[in-house]
Amino acid sequence: MAQLFTVHPDNPQPRLLKQAAALLHGGGVLAVPTDSSYALVCHLDDKAAVDRLRRIRQVDERHHLTLLCRDLSELASYARVDNTQFRRLKSGTPGPFTFILEASKEVPRRVSHPQRKTIGLRVPDHPALRELLALHGAPLLATTLILPGEGEPLNDAGAILEQLGHQIAGVIDAGACPLAPTTVVDLSGDAPEVLRRGRGDPARLGL
C-alpha cells in the first residue's frame, strides 16, 4: 500500500519529503501536488518506473511526458534552447506552463517523442514539489494524474490513495491543488504555438 505524506502547504516538512524522495530513488512512482493539478512522477533514468507510470495513465510513447525541473539552468541542460526561447522560458518560470522543446542528449530517447525528439519541460511553483525536487537532486519525469476514461485529474489525496494505493509507492498531501491544467506552449518550431490554454496566461509570455 502506498505511503501517505501529509505536509504543510507552505512550509513542507523536509523529514517527510526525504522519505518520499527515497521512494523515488528506489524506483517508486509518486502522486504529488503541483501548481496546476496532481501529477504522477518518477525517476527519469528508471525504465521500469517510467513504464509503470505509462501503464497507470494508459498512454503510449507518443504521449508527451514532462520533465519537472528545479530552475531554468537545470531545464536548459535537458533541452536545446536559444536566446529567444530562453527569454520566454524566463518570463514563465516558475509557473503553470509546460514548454515543448527539442530534447538534448541528456534526455533518454525512450522518454522523448519518438518522431519529433521533443520533451515537455516546466519549473513548477509549488513549495512541496520544489522541496522534493531539491531533495531528489534531479528532474522528475511527470504526467498529469488523469485516470483512463476520466476527463479531470484526481485532486484529493485520499481518493488517490484509495484508487492507486496498490500501484504507486506514495502520495504527498499538501492540500487541494488548483485543479487546472498547465498552459502548453510549443517552442520547438519556427514560431511559438499555444497547444493548450490552461492556468498560465499566454500574455505573460508575450503571446
Quick recap of the structure?
Helix content is 28%, strand content 21%. The protein contains 6 helices and 10 strands.
Give short descriptive properties of this protein.
alpha/beta; 10 strands; 28% helix; single chain; ten-stranded mixed β-sheet; 6 helices; 207 residues; DHBP synthase
Report on this model:
The chain has a single domain (3-205), classed as DHBP synthase (Alpha-Beta Complex), CATH 3.90.870.10. Helices cover 28% and strands 21% of the residues. The protein contains six helices and ten strands; from the N terminus they run βαββαβααββαβαβββ. It has helices spanning 14-25, 47-57, 72-77, 83-92, 127-136, 157-164, and strands at residues 3-6, 30-32, 39-43, 66-68, 97-102, 118-122, 140-144, 170-173, 183-186, 193-196. Strands 1-8-2-3-7-4-6-5-9-10 form a ten-stranded mixed β-sheet, sandwiched between helices. It starts with a strand and ends in an 11-residue tail after the last strand.
Secondary structure layout plus pairing:
Blueprint: E1 3-6, H1 14-25, E2 30-32, E3 39-43, H2 47-57, E4 66-68, H3 72-77, H4 83-92, E5 97-102, E6 118-122, H5 127-136, E7 140-144, H6 157-164, E8 170-173, E9 183-186, E10 193-196
Parallel strand pairs: 1-8, 2-8, 4-6, 5-9
Antiparallel strand pairs: 2-3, 3-7, 4-7, 5-6, 9-10
Helix pairs in contact: 1-5
Write the CATH architecture name: Alpha-Beta Complex
Percent helix, as a range, is 25-40%
Query: What proportion of the residues form beta strands (DSSP E)?
Result: 15-25%
Which structural category fits the helices and strands? alpha/beta
Structural shape: globular
Number of strands: 10
**What is the fold named in CATH at topology level?**
DHBP synthase
End-to-end distance, in Å?
A: 45 Å
